[in-house]
Specification:
- This protein has 175 residues and is of the alpha+beta class.
- Helices cover 19% and strands 37% of the residues.
- The protein is built from 3 helices and 8 strands.
- The chain has an 8-stranded mixed beta sheet, sandwiched between helices.
- It is globular, with a radius of gyration of 16 Å.
Length: 175
């Protein structure tokens, strides 16, 4: 499978159906109210890939684990925000996860940069995402990669006994 982006500590490639188990496990292991608005997954687990979450929507970062094995260290989901033809110049990030063992190694930043390159390659010139207001680490990362706050839905979610803002961020993909 071709790599689309590399970094000294990881490489990014398109997801494949064979990533199903590893990405499902990663998704469950990284679940947190810091970024999730759905309840914690419970067995029996739903498939990671389905009609709305297709392998072609995901990029996978692979990195060496403590045993020296290359394995999925994170993923990013990049999709069209709507089915409208007038919106095809935009890509939206709808999921980003990094395994605990791979944190602090630039995996999330590498996934973002790979997503920028992939979106540009598809002719997109703008990228958006939504992030929970209290997720300060993610917001700082996105800001450092050129995203700006474009809107806030105050108190949009009620999580862990408190209201949390839904923050819309966007950036140009122009070189």
């Amino acid at each position: 499978m071709p790599e689309i982006f590399t970094h000294p500590d990881c490489r990014v490639r398109p997801a494949a159906l064979s990533d199903e188990a590893a990405l499902g496990e990663l998704d469950r292991a990284t679940w947190s109210t810091l970024h999730a608005v759905v309840p914690r997954p419970q067995p029996p687990y739903a498939p990671f890939f389905d009609d709305r979450h297709r392998p072609e929507d995901f990029l996978v970062a692979e990195a060496q684990d403590a045993a020296g094995e290359m394995r999925p260290a994170g993923y990013i989901r990049l999709v069209l925000p709507t089915p409208l033809a007038c919106n095809t110049h935009v890509r939206q990030i709808q999921g980003l996860a990094v395994a605990d063992w791979a944190r602090g190694r630039g995996v999330a930043r590498t996934l973002l940069r790979a997503a920028f390159a992939a979106a540009r390659g598809e002719g997109a010139n703008r990228m958006t995402l939504r992030v929970l207001g209290h997720n300060t680490p993610a917001r700082a990362l996105y800001e450092s990669e050129g995203f700006v706050v474009e809107g806030v839905l105050a108190g949009e979610f009620f999580l862990d006994g408190r209201y949390v803002d839904d923050v819309l961020m966007g950036r140009s993909l122009a070189p």
